[in-house]
Amino acid sequence: MNKYVAEPYKVKVVEPIAVTTWEQRKKAIEEAGYNTFLLRSKDVYIDLLTDSGTTAMSDDQWAGMNLGDEAYAGSENFYNLLKAVKEVYGYEYVIPTHQGRGAENLLSQLTIKPGDYIPGNMYFTTTRAHQELNGGTFRDVIIDEAHDSDSEYLFKGNICLDKLKSLIEEVGAEKIPYICMAVTVNLAGGQPVSMQNLKDVYALAGKHHIKVMFDATRCVENAYFIKKREAGYENKSIADILKEMMSYSDGCTMSGKKDCLVNIGGFLAVNDEELYTRATQMVVMYEGMPSYGGLAGRDMEAMARGIYEAIDYHYIHHRISQVQFLGDKLIEAGVPVVRPIGGHAVFLDARKFLPHLEQEKFPAQSLAAEIYLKSGVRTMERGIVSAGRDKEGNHHKPALELVRLTIPRRVYSYAHLEVVADAIIDLYQEREKIKGLEFVYESPVLRFFTARFKHVD
């Protein structure tokens, strides 16, 4: 029998979820063009599409929602958010945004000019899109182990210093507005970055007067992995580890919909007053006043409270343990997954799950559709479809072709995860029956959100 970490909370409100038949699911996935993003939530049994905005907020956060100061300027909730960001993350200046990509838009427009290069530890979809729309070129400088799903390297999110040095020598430091460092790395499988690597990258960047900007969306998860995996940090608190992590950066973009435990919201945080001043001018055009940035006061209050809740050890220990539980169940059954199990999701290796499908037949997209059809569980493709096309119109072909089983925070029980594991294990036994897909519709930017497919004959 698997042991598991019990929930550090009790249930106060419940929400019914759909229990559907195979016939109902077949109709739903066909209407959605075999794209799980286009399914209606009422047709989904267990929703593992994303952990973004799907958190169950606490009673304290809901209480805070009733204290929303909805003043157009100078909301008291903004100052509560600013205080939380300063105390927990250590940044001096904060601009709220409606969510993380709003912060990405501000940072990209303010810092990137045509011909620039932005090195990072593996791309993320919206981040790279903003960088490219502003004339930049993303360059992957993550360690090689990150592209190997079988590697058990404990910090597969690390930046390769040699790759970073080579890029600086190749294009010149003046062509690099900032280093984009994700903590953790989503498309590598939710993999963390070590504290030593954060120090080393920050020191190298400083020598060349290059800023380091974190994608801090899952920074608390990264701090947890440092505590569990890196020597010298085992006795330190999550709060202390997180504060040290963030000190090795010049700012961050944050999607509050993940580690800030809210359903909407984000921010751009920086230490550079000049950059902050320019950002306050731009946010008015795209989001709202610098003191609300597209959010209601109540949303900022919930985020401020969530920032403190997220650094509680019992919360984050249970959160990571749930993900590990699902991963262990699949590994025990021989299902190919990215190892070691990451922070927010279990990632199925679709190439090894469906070796009969070449990458151009979209094996991860096919597998995600079949998981839904089999069980009503909604997952997400993270492979060639998500990677998009280059400037010449050719598919980006990532080494990792994955299906993400993303665990929402404080939402599902271990019994739900048992159902997910059993369904995928059963599907693995009949995997040779799964067909590939081809495009029916493809949007030019971020195609995975709205694309439609049909089965290849």
In a few lines, what is going on in this structure?
By secondary structure, the chain is an alpha/beta fold.
The CATH homology group name of the largest domain: Type I PLP-dependent aspartate aminotransferase-like (Major domain)
Q: Provide the gyration radius in Å.
A: 21 Å
Number of domains: 2
Which class of secondary structure composition applies to the elements? alpha/beta
Count of alpha/pi helices: 16
Enzyme class: lyase
Catalytic activity: L-tyrosine + H2O = phenol + pyruvate + NH4(+)
EC number: 4.1.99.2
Cofactor: pyridoxal 5'-phosphate
Topology summary:
Blueprint: H1 22-31, E1 46-47, H2 59-65, H3 76-88, E2 93-97, H4 100-111, E3 117-120, H5 125-133, E4 137-140, H6 161-171, E5 178-182, H7 195-207, E6 211-215, H8 219-229, H9 238-247, E7 251-255, E8 266-270, H10 273-286, H11 297-310, H12 313-332, E9 345-349, H13 350-353, H14 363-375, E10 377-378, E11 380-382, H15 384-387, E12 402-406, H16 414-429, E13 437-441, E14 452-455
Parallel strand pairs: 1-10, 3-4, 5-6, 6-7
Antiparallel strand pairs: 2-8, 7-8, 9-12, 11-12, 13-14
Protein name: Tyrosine phenol-lyase
Keywords: Lyase, Pyridoxal phosphate
Subunit structure: Homotetramer.
Key features of this structure:
457 residues; alpha/beta; Aspartate Aminotransferase, domain 1; Aspartate Aminotransferase, domain 2; 5-stranded mixed β-sheet; 3-stranded antiparallel β-sheet; Beta-eliminating_lyase; Tyrosine phenol-lyase; tyrosine phenol-lyase activity; lyase
